[in-house]
Amino acid sequence: MTRKALIFLLVLLAAWALVPGSAAGGVHVDEAGREVRVPDEPQRIVSLAPSITEMLFALGLGDRVVGVTEFSTYPPEAAAKTRVGSYIRLNAERILDLAPDLAVGTVDGNKLGLVELLEDAGVAVYAVNPRSVDGMIRTVEGLGAVCGVRERGEALARELRARLDRVVARTQEKRRPRVFLQINIRPIMSVNRNTLHHDVIRLAGGENITADHEVPYPRLSLEEVLDEAPDVILISSMERGGAFEEARKAWFRWNTIPAVRTGRVHLIDSDLFDRPAPRVIRGLERMMQLLHPGTD
H or E segment at 36? Predict the structure, then answer.
């Protein structure tokens, strides 16, 4: 081989190593702005948050997921995966024992020290940061590309975005009811505009009465809720069973609230609203039905 041909081959190999989908993997910029070299088609993926678990399974990657966090309850198949700790308290040793070639974490939930430890051990760590419904869709599409199923990710993103656009189109000309979303029973807590919950209320054609509070999950007194006089009360709590239903019944003692007078006090499934995952689109559709009865 001539010297010129050898140089050409070396340049070609170096360029090939940087192309996503090559045998050496590709460089992706994650949602924290970090460059991450990910294997071409990662085969052993650890999910570091329940929402990520849902995304990976929705992309048809369940067979490649080897580890998940506690409370990764959906889909049911996730229950069979090895637990690697909680969302904020991960077990690095257990993660490394699974010999992953990719870990997918979150910008705000997973500690930087753990990310650095995994990377030092040779594990690619890709961080996501969905903070809205549209952000979730973009994350799903991005994960498809990172995990070597780009077309699948694009198709899923198109489907989710079409359903989102359909809800917006059906509600944008309607009167926006004032909504109080209760996410905790004792103390009473709600959400401000910097939350996924608020985004769902907004997109479904509602007005979040606690949008302007300074903290994301403000505590409120009963008097504050009475003063705001919401048109709709929605209760999305981690509490289940009797306490969940009792919280709904308790509001009917206050018939000065428009929502009470019209019977618009509803329980909603928190699993559909709490996580930036594909199921939140189902939650958005359900929210539309509650805020605008008769709209389908």
Answer: strand 35-38
Distance between CA atoms of residues 245 and 253, nearest Å? 14
Output the six-digit token pair for 134: 């549209």
**142-145 long-range contacts, CB within 8 A, separation 24+:** 142/28, 142/31, 143/52, 143/55, 143/56, 143/59, 143/104, 144/59, 145/20, 145/28
Q: What's the pLDDT tens digit per position in 48-105?
A: 999 999 999 999 999 999 999 999 999 999 999 999 998 888 999 999 999 999 999 9
**CA 118, CA 274: separation in Å to the nearest integer?**
28
pLDDT of residue 109: 80
Query: 149-187 pLDDT, tens per residue?
Result: 999 999 999 999 999 999 999 999 999 999 999 999 889
35/81 Cα distance (integer angstroms): 28
DSSP state of 267: E
3-state SS, residue 83: strand
Please choose, from the candidates 142, 270, 273, the residue with its C-alpha nearest in 3D space to the C-alpha of residue 199. Answer: 273
AA letter at 58 = A
**Domains with residue ranges and CATH for the chain:** 21-162 (3.40.50.1980), 174-291 (3.40.50.1980)
SS3 of residue 198 by DSSP = helix
CA dist., res. 279 & res. 285, Å (int): 10
Q: Which two tokens stand for residue 234?
A: 């929605």
pTM of the prediction?
0.88
